[in-house]
## 1
Amino acid sequence: MRITLLAYGTRGDVQPVLALARELVGAGHTVRMAAGSDFRDRIAECGVEPAPSSMAARDLMTSDDGRLWADLGTNPILQVRVMRRLVLRTARAMMDEAWEACRDANVILGTSSAEPFGPSFAERLGVPFITTLLQPAFRATRSGAATWMAPVPGRSSLLNYAAGKLLVEGAFHWMSRDLIDAFRAEKLDLPPQSTRRYLASAGSRPVLMGISRHVTPHPDDWPPPYHTTGYWFLDDTEEWSPPPGLEAFLEDGDPPVAIGFGSMTTRDPAAATRLLLDGIAASGRRAVLLSGWAGLGGSDLPSSVFVVDAAPHAWLFPRMAAAVHHGGAGTTAAAVRAGIPQLICPHLGDQPYWGRRMQELGVAPKPVLKPRLTAAKLAKAIRDVTGDPRYAANAAALGKLVHAEDGLAAGVELIERYGR
């Protein structure tokens, strides 16, 4: 099959589906991947063809709106407002480049960022579109465990179904509907598509979720072509060497705590760094601080903190006592597989959902929303998550269950079934 995979987003959005793309290449398929220019070299290293792209995810997240979104994105009204501005700024260029990447495909795969417009490409070409998600499907369900903003998170309820209908289904399509209809008319020679019609077709399309049933149980009221495959991990530890001094730091005491917020940026990196350092000091723990796109860290650091720009989670997390992070789907999955406790400080998007699920599974305390994070709250949460043995026991048990899954093999089998 000639497959085009549309996967615009940050590293946490791209890396798991790149693992799936590499597995498809290994199974004999030709795969082209459209993602931000940030990931061109990594895509090529995996034997996948990178589609031309003029956009960089890092530029988006370090823009004024990107920093505002990361700082205050847990405010739902502000989140929708900023997301719509970002969508309007980037969607047309993204669709133009994605369409060029899809013209000769006989199967199109798309992550959440491509879900609103990718099906229109497939409609025009007469080929299958398969949604590949890293979070529960944007589909209403009674299950609290699979509903992003569940009013009744602990059980099955019609209230959860209603919340999914009102707050989740069609949200991405609604934000970009005008742009999509214009593109359908100008480039695809297709009529406008209402959100109702979009949702009706979404229920019949295959949806593959690269998450674990042990983390998000698969609801029985989702449509039959919706599948929970298990996580998609791209391990690259053999190609990475730790920076000088890191291994010595790890060996010079108890396992530290990993702290970092990945691609989440901030309007004041210095203030964010001070908060984290004060919290680490008050917790009494050592820490590896991951600088990330926010640029955390600096020259004046205590001996109990080691700063690295980034490190493969598969290498770092098993050496840690716990992971403090933003709750991105990929980072959460990596910490789950490593079998270590977590503390999640959600910034935006699906991150509050993952924070809640980790708490419900007993591997993390209650999440602390990023705008409400203080040094005192951070210190207390670190002491709690590293001092209570129940978190470590639950995390180890969950990690073993996830290790036993093969999400990549399941994903490839389903793509081959639906794509033929």
Note: The first strand starts at residue 2 and ends at 6.
## 2
Amino acid sequence: MEPEAAAAWERRLERAGDLGPVHPTLLRHLALPLLQRLEAGLGNGTAQRRPVLALNGPVGAGKTSLGRALERLAPLGGLRLMVVSIDDLYLPAEQRRQVLAGNPFGVSRVPPGSHDLPLLLAALKAWRAGGPLRLPGFDKTLAGGEGQRSGWREQPADALVIEGWLMGCRALGPQALEAGLQSGAGLEALTTEERQWLPFWDRHLAGYKDLWDACDGLWLLRPQRWSLPRRWRFQAEARQRRSGGGWLTADKLDGLVRATVRSLPPALYQDPLLRPQPSLELQGGVILDGRRRCRPLEAQLSSLASASSAIG
């Protein structure tokens, strides 16, 4: 960050008070640089359109808590920011069941194809034309933990952050996918059935290209190890159960977590995000350890780009 802008955001952070269960290092290494990026783009008068940033992070990484912190910090710098989860854009339950029928994880949401992309793109177009941002909500605690659409959120906003575990991931196409399968790198834990379904997920992922093209930058919450998301998600579910909210059985929860690391194996779909992407610039991010403490992504970029991912 530019020194003066960085100092200004540090002062705002000190004034912000309680920002919930977000580790201070995550605020300083990701939240503040992201907000400064938005402030600079909106403040120089050259923005061609209202900015949308994509935030990619695995299940359990704290994306929801980080989003709330961003929305509380942004107004201190004069920014009207809305943070939404791509999971808020799940298709209605019956459509999801049809799309995902027979999948190897036994899930009715999560993998590519379960999101209402036309609705999201239409909302972005109307908002960038000057209207308010109107998007649905999704309550994961309803329907016995399967989740369903719940109300709408409408508000004026100058900028938008969309977070989700597959944000920015690109379809490979049949030939590149086959080459990845032949290499076997990072795919050892997949069952035969899960491997057979990869072309199906890849075809559905191709439909997300228009959304990635509508985004102006990519930010990553990358786990140190791909076994961590499962631990984090089970911890979150335990907290939800203690609070009296709807919760999933262990087998259903395991299916949801596996769906995020096996429908799009990190070695094939997450690792490429560390390299230059067409029309979607990697602007920043962090590496999270088991306690969700973080260090800046930049220091690890070269080594991570050449390393193979292990699926936990």
Note: Confidence is low (pLDDT under 50) at residues 308-312.
## 3
Amino acid sequence: MTNIIIIGLLISIIFYEITDISPGGIIVPGLMVLYFNQVDRMIYTVVIAIISYLVVKWASRYFIIFGRRRFVLLIVISLVINFVLQLLLKSFSISMLNVSIIGYTIAGLIANDFYKQGVKKTLPALVIVVGIVELIGIMIQYWG
């Protein structure tokens, strides 16, 4: 487990240095790989990140939001949106959609990069780096 996170960090940094595109933060791909067999959780986390990004982008039209405030706000908004969606899913007894977010800050980290780089750059970068880290993890298991 620790090896995958370290590999994820290294691949994220290398990818950023080569492309100048951050894959949702340097820690995110390594943690996403830990949940690679739970695609619903990965998708749910990215959806929460997109919604958080859109909410903060809308709010920034009316309030001065930048730097650390924006970063913290993205994390807090992602937590609130996750909490509200979990309540809605439970209140409507939707048992087939029993998903949860990966970590508490991962969606906020991804949303922060969405805000800085845009969704069109960050999302493909995240998919590519997660795929590379997963392949390396498979090779380590096979040859390790």
Note: The mean pLDDT is 91.
## 4
Amino acid sequence: MIALSISFFITAMLYAAVGFGGGSTYSALLVLAETDYRILPSIALLCNLIVVIGGTYKFSRAGHINLRRIAPWIVTSVPAAWLGGYLDIPEMVFIGLLGVSLLIVGMRMLWFKREIDDTHNIEQETINKHRFLPPIIGVMLGLLSGLVGIGGGVFLAPILYLMHWDSARKIAATCSIFILVNSLAGLIGQIMKLSNMALVSDISAYWLLFPAVLIGGQIGSSMGAKHLNPNTLRVMTALLILYVAVRLIWRWWEMSV
């Protein structure tokens, strides 16, 4: 448990430094640690919440959160995340989904495009052009979030950049809210499912992971804001994710043959 806690600490630190929660990598690390896959998403989502709550609060205090603009993205993602958390899927499907998700996340971080200039105001243009996309994308990302124990922000961010949705800070704030609400909805679905299986109490054995991500997340936020080059942090995080993704996909391959 000590080694796993250190891994969670490092993951939270790296993800928080680049503005995300780390749910996908928490799930992967738990898989590799032979954790029961049925309780695994609940642990990952709870860790995700611990990391992103602080970031969301900071974005809110800085005035970067516009709930009216964010609402179309979360109105469908939240119920979908709950449904994903409540659904019971086979272990092989779970590991396959998680491995592919991590591979996409890692590649996205490694080949990240330049962010939008904070002074570029494109709000009304974007609203008119992409009016019907947010609810559709919200359903897909919310369902994936609940199924495999992620917040979905790491998938939402590149979509928003491609859409020229808003400035880098406001996109980061939107992703923070997206991660928060979907992690919470997915966690509720997972807990309801585990209650039916009498497995909720098994989560307490992993209590040491929660203070690990709390401390790591706080250090990571400070590092990202003040000390380290964001590109260096992004590449380090991407390489960690890709390494874990390859191990997961290899494990899925062994299970399928």
Note: The longest helix spans residues 168-197.
